[in-house]
Prior knowledge:
The protein is α/β, with parallel strands linked by helices. It folds into four domains: about 10-185, no CATH class; about 210-295 and about 305-525, Rossmann fold (3-Layer(aba) Sandwich), CATH 3.40.50.970; about 565-740 and about 750-810, Rossmann fold, CATH 3.40.50; about 820-955, Multifunctional 2-oxoglutarate metabolism enzyme, C-terminal domain (Rossmann fold, 3-Layer(aba) Sandwich), CATH 3.40.50. The strands form five sheets. It has an eight-stranded mixed β-sheet with strand order 3-9-10-8-7-4-6-5. Helix 12 crosses helix 22 (about 680-690).
Amino acid sequence: MSEPSSVYTAYQGNSYLFGGNAPYVEEMYENYLANPGSVPDNWRDYFDALQNVPAVDGSNAKDVPHQPVINAFAERAKQGGTKVVVASGADSELGRKRTAVQQLIAAYRNVGARWADLDPLKRTEREKIPELDPAFYGFTDADYETVFHTGNTFFGKETMTLRELLNALRETYAGTIGAEYMYLTDQAKKRWWQQRLESIRSKPNFAADKKKHILDRVTAAEGLERFLHTKYVGQKRFSLEGGESFIASMDELIQEAGVRGVQEIVIGMAHRGRLNVLVNSLGKMPADLFAEFDHTAKEDLPSGDVKYHQGFSSDVTTRGGPVHLSLAFNPSHLEIVNPVVEGSVRARMDRRADPLGKQVLPVLVHGDAAFAGQGVVMETLALAETRGYFTGGTVHIVINNQIGFTTSDPRDSRSTLYCTDVVKMIEAPVLHVNGDDPEAVVLATQLALDYRMEFSKDVVVDIVCFRKLGHNEQDTPSLTQPLMYKKIAAHPGTRKLYADKLAAQGLGETLGDDMVKAYRAAMDAGKHTTDPVLTNFKSKYAVDWSPYLGKKWTDAADTAIPMAEWKRIAERITTVPANFTPHPLVKKVLDDRAAMGRGESNVDWGMGEHMAFASLVASGYPVRLSGEDVGRGTFTHRHSVLHDQNRERWDIGTYVPLQNVADNQAPFVVIDSILSEEAVLGFEYGYASNDPNTLVIWEAQFGDFVNGAQVVIDQFIASGEVKWGRVNGITLMLPHGYEGQGPEHSSARLERFMQLSADLNMQVVQPTTASQIFHLLRRQMVRGLRKPLIIMTPKSLLRNKDATSPLSEFTKGGFQTVIPENRELKGDKVKRVVICSGKVYYDLAKKREERGADDVAILRVEQLYPFPHKVFAAELRKYPNATELVWTQDEPQNQGAWFFVQHYIHENMLEGQKLGYSGRAASASPAVGYSHLHQEQQKSLVDGAFAKLKGFILTK
């Protein structure tokens, strides 16, 4: 190993021990002299080394008494019988070197990873790090046999020669494992890493059987890839070749997690190595995988997906008992699976009453380029320590092929030193490890799991390897990376290197070849290649989805509640503890709701929503509501979390009425999320995918902000069932409505959801009354159907008296997919039927009243998809003499529901009827930003609903 080099004087100008930090260091040292236990461990270690340094005279120097420290260390040396070099007051140079020893140790702990032996291809010389060179601190060859006090006992000795210490530091921090942890602010965690790494010098000491097992797993990883490469030439599989140690890492993680009491592991990963994990980690039958390659596998989904997107679950044996493994389905959007996995884990934790995640483990496997490049990684990490999204720490494994996902120049792949640097935002430690050292990979995995289980924090294992083939098997990466792929072509393979190493250790000359033959035989037979998979084991925590399969959206649902229950619940959610002081405005809301509960006034939107939640939790259905500002509600209509005006501590200063509905109620959880749409919605989708009994709701602050989560909607919510057969009942609340608030606060992009609607995949609804939201939310749980529910919720209607409902509409009836004309009109006198959805109905009703247009009926379509053909047709046939139909909407013509609903309306029109459109003209923007222009457009579209048909007209 070549020596890093520089000069000591350069360090003085950059070290945290010099310059502007001097007053702070001096104060810390005075505290140390008074009480060594009063300063952090790392400072105590440093000051321990100063016992022989005399005070420096000078006008700006402080007269600090060092003699007590000198005497104490001299006495310690006598008692231990160890030869320790003690600098006298006259030997300040030797005292300085004692201090420099501590600086050298600190440098290796801080930046040793940058000099570690991590690249299997050894394409470049390792970076020269001046701080790691003893000469940087003024040491010469004559100092190498000098004995120094190290200031700690982690290396097994309190005193070491400089040579011994340097070797120990290099083995620990600059071998095939490079550790990053010194940025942790918690001293206990830093000391944990120092003890675990330095006590073994980052070197595994595995028994022969353990080494053979590691070789077996690496052989399995290589064997599957080579078998597929031979049998299915040119077919995409995103080979793991070059990163085979990853399978040994997964094996260790699964087995050791079982020993530590973990009963479920949820894994999220993209394409690289996915087929290998399916077969060699989860125990998917090779014959089943081959059937997918041969196109003979059973296809029973409307769409299906490619094999390297598929999920899988199994139960495997470990030394600690059965462990359930779940590999999440994942599209090509790579890291988007991260929050989905975390949500799935949280649902499992809640089901097990496992708040610290000791029984459920999330594992996320990343590619280096995606980990550094995709924003959802940061958003998901930001959730890690928050109360509503905590999952007990995630083990991250990076398959780092050093080139990214295509053949781009690595210099363009990121702006950080390491692809893992993003995790430093949550102080997750990182173990970089050379993929050509399978034992080091296994050791790093052990350490990572131990840390996660000990501290419930995220941790990263970065396996630095290479990619033998291209991004996929149809690429030719040497076109753009000729030198790298010359080295790869000459590389014998991780399995061969490790097999030769074990043979040299006397573990069998033919051991490697025997394993290759055995694995090939298993492949030819299509047999299991992993530890026994349990085929008849079922955990008591497993979810039975069968009650939710085969249901129809037209199935009836009894969503009304008895009057007595209504009044009991209403009283509970409008009462606060005697010693609780709500804000005066909130007190008025509670008083108004109490009157609504007694039937003294109509029920508004907020009360209707609250009563839906309250009645559900009282009936045993948990409710989980999350999003930005959902506790209060963006438009201050909800007030589900009340704040005591005399106390501000969150643990004692808040009260949640919906958590106090009944003595044995189901949980009501409301979470004001971080400012994230993509990760939070992905999390909630993952939660709902593992808990069909909970009403899981994500609410956008404004409906427009759902744009930030479009990938989750496209790849999971809209298509998850037809691609993967994943049933999910997540609910989205998206405030939508044109009130002149500009382009970003008007539209939840209803048209996008309509465009994604097919195969009865989800429900798109725009309710317009308090009773409608009540019955709709209850229907989502009471009815056995589990489909995503997209609700275009209002803004101005939240306080519109016309949108309130009498109490009788809650104690009888149900959700109306179409709200019929509510005026007494003579059906045969009606000449025109105006059809609409959402807030515009109230503008139309007002305009009709002004015009006295009794020959116009107005129909509200509350459920846009699945379109309620039967109900709609029945309403339309009430007006046999109506020759004109007009669809009216607030949104521009190229947006909203018009382009999609016109075909549904045409299907139900009578002979001779014409269908026209009244709304805003097509626009590139969702809404105008000028108030006066908004008003002009709104007046024009409402007037147009009653004017002569013009423009596009559809005739039956």
